[in-house]
Amino acid sequence: MSLNVLVVFPLARFGFPAPHVLLATTTCTGAAINTVLLWRGLTKAGVFKPSQLWPKFLLRVVLANAVMALTLWLLASDVDVWSQMRVLERVLRCAFGIALGAGVYFAVLYVLGMRYRDLRTEVD
Fold first, then answer.
1. pTM value?
2. What single DSSP character describes residue 112?
3. In sequence order, which ranges of 17-116 are alpha helices (DSSP H)?
4. DSSP SS3 for 45
5. 63 and 106 share a domain?
6. Which pLDDT belongs to residue 122?
7. For residue 12, what is the enclosing H or E element?
8. 67-111 pLDDT per residue, tens
């Protein structure tokens, strides 16, 4: 949130043409920083011990994200097309995109062999 205030507000005030892009970028950057700090702290405290299955898991997730992103990119239209749609049509198309993206993501994970039981860990 601090990045949003420090970056987006000043640049929006100076006329940056797309402040929503900055908002998304700083939110993602903040999440990445938070993730790294959390990983470092949990590893240092001995709470997080990565399994040998992590590389396989991460590969599956990255591939599923890539296919989902490609699907949504192909589904998206020009901004002009969206701005000419009625509100209900935009809402329905957006809902369809969310449902399709989630469906594609989980379908790719399933095809790559991931199952719900793979997300569960047994406590020693």
1. 0.70
2. T
3. 19-44, 54-75, 79-84, 87-111
4. coil
5. yes
6. 56
7. helix 9-13
8. 999 999 999 888 888 889 999 999 999 999 999 999 999 999 999
- Structural domain that includes position 5: 1-49
Q: 3: helix, coil or strand?
A: helix
* 115 close to 56: Cβ distance less than 8 angstroms: no
Question: How many residues are listed for the chain in this entry?
Answer: 124
8 Å CB contact between 104 and 63 = no
| 101-114 pLDDT per residue, tens | 999 999 999 999 99
Q: Is residue 98 domain-shared with residue 110, that is, in the same domain?
A: yes
What is the rounded distance in angstroms from the CA atom of residue 41 to the CA atom of residue 8? 29
- Six token digits for residue 73: 């990119």
Among 27, 22, 28, 1, which Cα is nearest to 10's? 22
Decide: 104 and 68 in contact? Cβ < 8 Å.
yes
- The alpha-carbon radius of gyration of the chain (Å, integer) is 19
pLDDT in tens, 25-54: 889 999 999 999 999 999 999 998 888 888
